[in-house]
Design goal:
Chain A: It holds the Pfam family ETF. Chain A: This is Electron transfer flavoprotein subunit beta. The complex is a heterodimer of chains A (253) and B (323). Chain A is of the alpha/beta class and 253 residues long. In chain A, 28% of the residues lie in helices and 30% in strands. In chain A, strand 4, helix 2 and strand 5 form a beta-alpha-beta unit. In chain B, strands 5-9-4-1-2-3-10 form a 7-stranded parallel beta sheet, sandwiched between helices. The radius of gyration of chain B is 21 Å and the shape is elongated. The chains are: A alpha/beta (253), B alpha/beta (323). Chains A and B meet through helix 4, helix 5, strand 7, strand 8 and strand 9 of A and helix 3, helix 4, strand 5, strand 7 and strand 8 of B.
């Protein structure tokens, strides 16, 4: 089984983002970035499949500006065998939609005969939660989204437990398939120094949108990015009776 | 292929249901559909033995048509199967908008349909400004984006807490058989489900939510939250830390990657207030925080903060409400 893992470079999850005064986007310059947490989980699961001899090769993929190579190196240090970087400039990247990323992934998956596409369930910047499902739709492959457990069933199927609103659901999908990882799937490993050194020797294949016949025409236009309404500062209450009294006054109890 | 200006607007809402009852999120999606500014709203009910659900859907206010797909292969509503039906319905009726709730069902299905129709979907919509302009949160709700869609068909998932539920009665939608779809049952299969059972109200529709974090220290200690919740008729939620520590099941998680809630009253107990948690509850009407660390960020968004030991305060609060 060959696995294609999509990884996205996003503003680090611990950063409180700020909206630009001109309301075009959020401030990204000089802000710490890292691999999208859900993608780390997808990658970790792929590496586990390889360690269990179910996967033969893991290829990490990222679409974005030159800086995306940092996270591809991280992916290589964590166990990916090679990487593909689809490079676009900053201005183009601003306008890229999950739709385009999914088209690129679908094209690669088909051309290079991957058996499994593994992504995070959502990127913590756009919070779109679309790419995996779009890839599955483009390829007409089955999908297992929000995976919290992945088991192999022979060489042709995967049994996947999914996190759904009311609890958990288990499905079986036939390969080739698309999976998206939820938080509870695993605990991603840290890249060790020797592995970081080794990763420097692993290949990163550079591609352009043209190589994949990718049309980046926008279907959506961001008109404005604004700060959410802030909540009015509240008050501390002394004790439980005061709290109950205040809540009753407010009609909340 | 797409002639936008010459056709009138029509919307398809994909019903969420368990083959017996219509999910409340469907009613929120109908409200969002109404805000698109057209009266031609259809509901697709795809499932097995769904006549009861279809009847319910027909009664929803403002519904013109109920498209019914009743088949054994649709029983578990796997996205691969429902997707083919939505596409077949789209081919027949040429809707301008297709909507579903932003639930695990809608989130799985809508982008797949979008790929088949070659359009860029817009997920987690919190406001409809016009037929092509929508508002959605990004960065865990710390930035709000206003987006204009140029897609020939608008595919949306809508956040339930952002739209009131449409009236469940008053409508008289006309029932209609769904077009035939060639459903591939070969690629995916439903194995089983393990649903959390609880007598408490559903998290996403509860008026009051009591929520616990890491400071509860054990699954057993969560009992004090259940006691308080039962006194209040409240649902119980949790932070990621509490779920990861195994204090409660993951479908109780509230936050950016869990459930988004907006009750009348949210009581955060032993929750520090990380960005990711706040993303899921900051639209609650009144927020109460109980925490022993007066500097934790949850107090910055709480209407009422009580600094104290939760193991003392919570039972005291339960007692106080009994009276």
């Amino acid at each position: 089984m060959r696995v294609l893992v999509g990884v996205k470079r996003v503003i680090d999850f611990a950063v409180k983002v700020r909206v630009k005064p001109d309301k075009t986007s959020v401030v990204t310059d000089n802000v710490p970035h890292s691999m999208n947490p859900f993608d780390e989980i997808a990658l970790e699961e792929a590496v586990k499949l390889k360690e269990a001899n179910h996967a033969k090769e893991i290829v990490a993929f990222s679409l974005g500006p030159a800086k995306n190579q940092e996270i591809l190196r991280t992916a290589l240090a964590k166990g990916a065998d090679k990487a593909i970087h689809l490079e676009v400039d900053d201005a183009t990247y601003q306008k890229v939609e999950p739709f385009h990323v999914a088209q690129a992934i679908a094209k690669l998956a088909k051309d290079e005969k991957f058996d499994l596409v593994f992504l995070g369930k959502q990127a913590i910047d756009d919070d779109a939660n679309q790419t995996g499902q779009l890839v599955a739709g483009f390829l007409n492959w089955p999908q297992a989204t929000f995976a919290s457990k992945v088991e192999t069933e022979g060489t042709s199927h995967l049994k996947v437990t999914r996190e759904i609103d009311g609890g958990l659901e288990t499905i079986k999908v036939k390969l080739p398939a698309v999976l998206t990882a939820d938080l509870r799937l695993n605990e991603p490993r840290y890249a060790t120094l020797p592995n970081i050194m080794k990763a420097k020797k692993k290949p990163i294949d550079k591609k352009t949108p043209k190589d994949l016949g990718l049309d980046l025409t926008s279907q959506t236009e961001v008109l404005e990015v604004s700060e959410p309404p802030t909540r009015k500062g509240g008050e501390f209450v002394e004790d439980v009776p005061t709290l109950v009294k205040k809540l009753k006054e407010k009609g909340a109890l | 292929m797409f002639i936008l200006h010459s056709r009138s607007k029509s919307t398809l809402v994909i019903a969420e249901h368990n083959n017996e009852k219509l999910g409340p999120i469907t009613l929120s999606a109908v409200t969002a559909a109404k805000k698109l500014g057209n009266d031609d709203i259809s509901i697709l009910v795809a499932g097995s033995n769904v006549s009861k659900v279809a009847e319910e859907a027909a009664k929803v206010a403002n519904i013109k048509r109920v498209i019914i797909a009743d088949s054994d292969v649709l029983k578990t509503q796997l996205p691969e199967r429902v997707c083919d039906l939505v596409v077949a319905s789209q081919n027949q009726f040429k809707f301008t908008h297709i909507l579903a709730g932003a639930t695990s069902f809608g989130r799985s299905l809508v982008p797949r349909v979008a790929a088949k129709l070659s359009v860029s979907p817009i997920t987690e919509v919190i406001a409809v400004q016009s037929e092509d302009t929508f508002v959605r949160p990004t960065y865990a709700g710390n930035a709000i984006s206003k987006i204009k869609s140029k897609a020939p068909v608008k595919l949306l998932t809508v956040r339930g807490t952002a739209f009131e539920q449409a009236a469940a009665t008053g409508g008289s939608g006309k029932g209609e058989q769904a077009p035939k779809a060639d459903i591939n049952t070969d690629v995916s299969e439903f194995v089983g489900q393990e649903l959390s059972k609880s007598d408490r109200p559903d998290l996403q529709s509860a008026k009051i939510i009591v929520s616990g974090g890491r400071a509860l220290k054990s699954a057993d200690n969560f009992k004090i939250l259940y006691d308080l919740a039962d006194k209040l008729g409240a649902a119980v939620g949790a932070s990621r830390a509490a779920v990861d520590a195994g204090y409660c099941p993951n479908d109780m998680q509230i936050g950016q990657t869990g459930k988004i809630v907006a009750p009348e009253l949210y009581i955060a107990i032993g929750i520090s207030g990380a960005i990711q948690h706040v993303a899921g509850m900051k639209d609650s009407k009144v927020i109460v925080a109980i925490n022993k660390d007066k500097d934790c960020p949850i107090f910055q968004i709480a209407d009422f903060g009580l600094v104290g030991d939760l193991f003392k305060v919570v039972p005291e609060l339960t007692e106080a409400i009994k009276k």
